[in-house]
Specification:
about 270 residues; alpha+beta; Alpha-Beta Plaits; NADH Oxidase; 2 domains; four-stranded antiparallel β-sheet; two-stranded antiparallel sheet; 8 strands; about 15% strand
Length: about 270
């Protein structure tokens, strides 16, 4: 149910909700209205709720008063630039876990990231309990070492085998002793499963950094869980038809950085027709 309602006393009849509706579901007839039969075109973006300045409009039963106001709340450019350039890949973690309530709050916020279909195709699978993480760490490491010493790693994955070899002395190369793990997956048949997962994970990465947490994009764990040791994909409850696009280790860092680095930027091309 669209459950589209308008507070007539608050509504200024500005028409912004109708103008900004991507699929033209909303029309103006004095007040904003949704004609019978047009609800099926709604893509659930809630632009109408966001664009209504007086908060006169409700959709899906959402109260505008429960939304966060935007005025004056965006980070200034310098702060945002420092966050982007200042976050680091953390490979040293404290043993203490992060409050599960904070983890799940960050995941909820990160889930607002844009996707190719304006929907929510991405599933975020999180290990929020350090004890569970220790068991997962031990089992994956043991299975990887066993594979290394028996059948060997599949062709094309020899580099991952080299990393696993570094675990023979007890060093946790695979998860960097992080107390938590996050996996982003999406149905293989989705429009852009890899991109959608990477965007959501990037949002989580910056959010975690803003809360003083450390993160590292874990391509080793992704290779092991998604392809080399697929039994762990099943153990983690990730659907069979999902692609595990990216994996991230995270927790409270045991290292403190004091400035941004000065790496050259990427390739940038300017086009002028």
């Amino acid at each position: 149910m669209l459950n589209f309602t308008v507070d007539e006393e608050k509504c200024t009849r500005c028409g912004e909700c109708a103008k900004d509706c991507p699929t033209g579901v909303i029309e103006m007839d004095g007040l904003p209205v949704v004609r019978p039969g047009s609800e099926v075109r709604c893509i659930e973006c809630q632009h109408c709720l966001a664009v209504c300045k007086p908060g006169a409009l409700s959709v899906f039963g959402k109260d505008p008063a429960n939304s966060l106001p935007l005025k004056g709340m965006f980070p200034d450019p310098a702060t945002m630039e420092t966050l982007v350039m200042g976050r680091r890949s953390v490979r040293r973690y404290k043993k203490e876990g992060v409050d599960p309530a904070l983890i799940h709050h960050l995941l909820e916020v990160a889930s607002h990231a844009p996707t190719a279909v304006n929907g929510r195709p991405v599933t975020l699978t999180v290990v929020d309990d350090p004890d569970t993480m220790d068991r997962l760490r031990a089992e994956v490491t043991a299975a990887a070492l066993n594979l290394l010493h028996t059948d060997g790693f599949p062709e094309g994955w020899e580099r991952i085998g080299d990393y696993v070899r570094g675990c023979e002395d007890g060093t946790d190369i695979l998860f960097r002793n992080a107390p938590h793990l996050l996996l982003a997956s999406a149905p293989e048949g989705a429009l852009a499963p890899m991109a959608d997962c990477h965007i959501v994970m990037s949002y989580f990465d910056l959010l975690a950094s803003s809360h003083g947490l450390g993160t590292v994009w874990n391509g080793i764990a992704r290779a092991l869980i998604s392809t080399i040791l697929p039994q762990f994909k099943t153990r983690l409850g990730i659907p069979d038809d999902h692609i595990v696009a990216c994996v991230m280790s995270f927790g409270r860092p045991a290292v403190k950085y004091h400035r941004t680095v000065q790496r050259p930027g990427g390739t940038i091309r300017r086009v002028d027709f």
